[in-house]
Each structure stands twice: as structure tokens, then as C-alpha cells.
Amino acid sequence: MARVASKIGDVRSAVLLSALFVIPLLLALPEPLSIGSAKAAIDCSYDSSTAAQWHKQVNSFNMSGVSDGYNYEDEYYEEDWDSGQQWWGPSLDGDNIYNKSELSALRSDFHASFIVNNDSSSGIRMNLTHGYRYTFCFVVHSDNQSTHLPAPLVDFYLLQEYDWDFYRRDFEIRSMEDRDLLNKIPPEWRDIVAWMPYRDVHSYEGKRQLDFTVSLDADETSGAFFGLAEPETEWMYIVIDGWDNMRDSDTPAPHRNFTVDLTIMAEERLTLPKFTVSIFCCGLFLSLMAAPLILHNKFLSAGKDEGTVAVDLMPLMETEQSRAAASLAPDKPP
Hints:
- By secondary structure, this protein is an alpha+beta fold.
- It has 2 domains: 48-271, no CATH class; 275-304.
- Helices cover 26% and strands 25% of the residues.
- It is built from 6 helices and 14 strands.
């Protein structure tokens, strides 16, 4: 019975350790449970009755040029006291380039069409939030004046507000000579002085049609060090690039205007709390520490006498005659 109890205890320990690792993995993979909704997102179909509203969940921008005759050696300092923003050199032309008004979290679908002029950039500003999976669908078309030509190749970028400021500055100085200095900067330092796509991967260059998905583990915020200031929302920017930016892998300007259809699908998704990562990592570390102790304990207990009673394999079968004969037999002398 002691051996049976020991085996039951070992099985329970193994099941407990397995559940510690398997349950977080199953919770982190909710996609197989929502295959139907994932297909709907890939089809880029949405319900217009519940679509996001302009200037409440999304804002558009249109970035157009600065004067090519500007003398950057005589650069002056410009300060806008009304908006509290400062720029070196001339400001850009266009719509909503410097707009940073508050936006509600994007929790519904959205669709828009953009006319992008040659050597310019357009897109939308939005407030992505955690707990949702966003699918972006783009389709590029030629404008009405060049319908006989195929759609041009276009670059698409997903940027945070920090990189958006660098991108905007890159567009301002695009007429400067020798501005393509990205190759001279080591990769580990480029995000300090140059704009980078979100998570370093959301850059899609030379595309006529594109679908990609992104999910946030937490709301993107920024604030002062040591929590001395209130965190501010980091807006996200979808950039439709129609000019030759500083990246060597980008597509040059198409030398003609084009239109882009943009559809955003917002789907709820299961997000595990952050402490599950600590539980999983600590459980793995503790299991590695406990494994030698369990093996050592089993090795020591293997050679111990557990006090089991020996049982005859073939018990003696006695009858009444054999018992009587044994009792009448004379005692042997010592």
C-alpha cells in the first residue's frame, strides 16, 4: 500500500507541473476559437453603421512640401506659443500635420479613401488600445488621369508619435544634399536619430495591395522619468508614403498621383494579464530547482524496507484428516 500511495503522489505532482505550463499556453492561443471572425477580418468587410467617426477615433493628415529654395545655413528658430510646439526651420504645408487633439480608443471598424499626390505623404492618426486585434487592408489604384497605367508601388509604415516627429522632420529636409545618412549610423543607434517603424517590423515597401495585423499588449503611453508626470497617449500613425524618404529600401516617388483604399478591422481578443509571465517563468525556474531534489529523494527511498509482509504464493491446504493425524502422532524424544 505504501508503494501505491507513493506512485499516486508522483502522478499528482507530474499533473500539477504539466498544468502549470500547459494552461498559460492554451490561454495565450485564442485564435483557433475564433476562426470565423479571423476570416471576416481577412475579407476586409465591415459594418458601416458602427464605423469609427472622423475627429473622434481617427484623424487624417496630408503632408505636402516646403520651399525648395530655403537656405538651411540661415536656419532660424520658430516658436508657436499657441500650440506649445517648437520647430527649427520652416513648417510643413498640409492638413492636420501638427494636430494632436485627443482621440477615443479605436474599437470599431473604419474605412477611408485617400488621394495621395506625387512627392507627398498621407494617412491617419489613431488611438490603438490593448484587448483588440487590428487588421489593416490597403489597395492602391491609379488616379482618373492615368487609368491606363498600373497602380504604382507604394510604401506603408506604422509609426509611433515619437518616430512620427522624426519622419516629419525627414520630409522637411528632403531637399538637402547628403541627408541619406542612415547607412552611416550603426543599427543599434538608429532609433535615437532616425525614424523607425513600429516594433522595427511594420514597414511594407513597394506594395500595391497589403494586409497586416497588429495587437498591443498595453496602451502606448509616454511620460517623464520616475513617474514625475502624467503619462501621455502615444498616437499611432498609418503613413502612406509617396516620396523618396531616407530609407534605402523604400520605393522612389511614383511621379504621378494615386488613390488608396484603407480598411481597418477591430476585433476583440483575449489578453492575458502580465503576472502570468511571472508565474510561468517562476514555475519553470522552481521546477528546475525541484527536479534534483525529487530524483534524490526517489533514489534514497528505493532501497528502504517498507515493511511489507511476505505472502506465500501457494498456501498450504489442510484437511480435517491431516489435522487429526498430526495431533495423534507421538512426540519424538528430544
